[in-house]
């Protein structure tokens, strides 16, 4: 008997069917939560997009350049101004604003969820041992897979994109928050205990300030992952620069796709340098 014939006699593990059944149950059971999440997220995205659209492009370029100057210095300010002017010149200003809005909303949610989970993982060994393999699994999962559960919950659109982006980008914040707190010298913790500090005082006045550079490194990684996922999420209706890339692929327009890709790189470099500068200043 061949090996293939032998394998056919072994019952197949119903992993796919189980996942579909779980998603169907969660979709019906938590429909109220998904509707509330969708309403809040979509309102946040629309508000931020409308706020950015209130400013003429040249004024907004000046504001971003001024922010870059304050955070890092003249070099990034010049790069920010030239990069954003280039994006405006090639007609990708509106998609860029939509991408920035999506990244800001997704990053804010990921950080708001990731910081408490990271703190809990740092302070509780049992929770850390449970969440560590989960984070390993999440960070090795292909990015496209995160789009699958978003669609049953929210359908196509920006809310699905934000949901997938949050799940994809949250692990660095959790992991590096826990790592930063857990790596603090035990002598410092013992000294704070000797002065009679409470748990909250020790956390917010000793552990968090000392771990802040590592935490900010996690936030920086979260921002970069959020930007990359927002581009990929154009496949499920995210809009923004990712949609320009996806449209160029569908219509076989390499020039248009290259322009959108360069715009994504410019935004990524600006966000990376700004967030890295904040982390370095916190370390000082």
From TrEMBL:
Q: How does it sit in the membrane?
A: Multi-pass membrane protein
Record domain ABC transmembrane type-1: where: 96-275
Q: What is its main location?
A: membrane
The transmembrane segments are 51-69, 76-94, 100-123, 144-170, 223-246
Q: One GO molecular-function annotation for this sequence?
A: amine transmembrane transporter activity
Q: Which GO terms describe its cellular component?
A: ATP-binding cassette (ABC) transporter complex
Q: Which SUPFAM superfamilies match?
A: MetI-like
Instruction: Name the UniProt key words of this record, in alphabetical order.
Output: Cell membrane, Membrane, Transmembrane, Transmembrane helix, Transport
- Entry's localization field: Cell membrane
Tell me a GO biological process for this protein.
choline transport
Q: Name one Pfam family in it.
A: BPD_transp_1
Q: Would the keyword Cytoplasm be found if you checked this record's keyword annotation?
A: no
Give the family from UniProt: Belongs to the binding-protein-dependent transport system permease family.
What protein name is recorded for this chain?
Answer: ABC transporter permease
Q: Look up and give the organism this protein is from.
A: Alkalispirochaeta sphaeroplastigenens
């Amino acid at each position: 008997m061949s090996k293939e014939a032998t394998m056919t006699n072994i019952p197949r593990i119903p992993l796919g069917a189980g996942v579909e059944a779980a998603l169907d149950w969660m979709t019906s059971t938590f429909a109220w939560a998904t509707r509330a999440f969708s309403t809040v997220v979509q309102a946040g995205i629309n508000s931020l997009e409308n706020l950015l659209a209130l400013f003429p492009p040249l004024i907004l370029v000046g504001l971003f350049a001024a922010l870059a100057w304050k955070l890092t210095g003249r070099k990034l300010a010049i790069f920010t101004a030239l990069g954003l002017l280039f994006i405006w010149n090639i007609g990708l200003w509106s998609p860029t604003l939509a991408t920035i809005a999506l990244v800001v909303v997704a990053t804010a949610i990921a950080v708001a969820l990731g910081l408490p989970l990271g703190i809990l993982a740092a302070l509780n060994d049992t929770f850390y041992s449970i969440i560590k393999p989960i984070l390993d699994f999440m960070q090795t999962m292909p990015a496209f897979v995160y789009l699958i559960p978003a669609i049953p919950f929210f359908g196509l659109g920006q809310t699905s994109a934000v949901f997938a982006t949050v799940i994809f980008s949250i692990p660095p914040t959790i992991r590096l928050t826990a790592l930063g707190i857990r790596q603090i010298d035990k002598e410092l913790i013992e000294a704070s205990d000797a002065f009679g500090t409470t748990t909250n005082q020790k956390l917010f006045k000793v552990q968090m300030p000392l771990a802040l550079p590592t935490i900010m490194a996690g936030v920086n990684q979260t921002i970069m992952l959020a930007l990359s996922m927002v581009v990929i999420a154009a496949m499920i209706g995210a809009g923004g620069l990712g949609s320009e890339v996806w449209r160029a692929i569908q219509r076989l327009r390499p020039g248009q796709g290259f322009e959108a890709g360069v715009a994504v790189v410019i935004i990524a470099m600006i966000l990376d340098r700004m967030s890295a500068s904040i982390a370095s200043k916190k370390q000082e």
